[in-house]
Amino acid sequence: NAGVTQTPKFRVLKTGQSMTLLCAQDMNHEYMYWYRQDPGMGLRLIHYSVGEGTTAKGEVPDGYNVSRLKKQNFLLGLESAAPSQTSVYFCASSYGVTIRTQYFGPGTRLTVL
Amino acid sequence: EDQVTQSPEALRLQEGESSSLNCSYTVSGLRGLFWYRQDPGKGPEFLFTLYSAGEEKEKERLKATLTKKESFLHITAPKPEDSATYLCAVQAEVSSYKLIFGSGTRLLVRP
Q1: Cβ of residue A107 closer than 8 Å to a chain B Cβ
Q2: Cα separations (Å) of A87 from A38, A74, B2, B27?
Q3: pLDDT per residue as tens digits for the range A66-96
Q4: CB-closest option in B49, B87, B104 to A101
Q5: Which residues pair with A92 in a beta bridge?
Q6: Do B45 and A104 touch (CB under 8 A)?
């Protein structure tokens, strides 16, 4: 099993450009999450999904959109990138509410100039 | 407000020198407390889940314990390969989907 995978690993954008980060998991997990990690801030939840076709806002959702068209995939979109979105983005998944452990992907390092 | 505080921010140990990392939490109903290890440039790697006060879990040189207010990650006779950032996170009853993370403890074990 590959677990949770993320593409791309690195990306540099100019202010105003758009991009999509892809997360895939092969563990048949129901829940998926997108976090951002910034120095001194810890991991913060952007959006999450409790199942195929569902999404919800987390702690810091502004400037991001998500979609979960297939159970195994969770996409994070930036429509108009801003320098404040420079961060490392992690995707995670968990089986469900009763089995709560979240498993993380390797991350995407995004720089917005 | 739900909150997680980890201490110390950074810890330097000599190989074989045992110590403990602290995770203090304030949460309205604890569903679970999680410990992760994060190596530079990588995603958090799951270590332990603790669900109730008094619970303990061990893995190699690591032992995690839980009280009603805090958790400790004890490292016994650490090796240089234990160097990493250790993250603590809690899950509250009210918002069971969400993990609240601390800022982590950076551990450096010197040979």
Answers
A1: yes
A2: 6, 18, 24, 27
A3: 999 999 999 999 999 999 999 999 999 998 7
A4: B49
A5: A33, A104
A6: yes
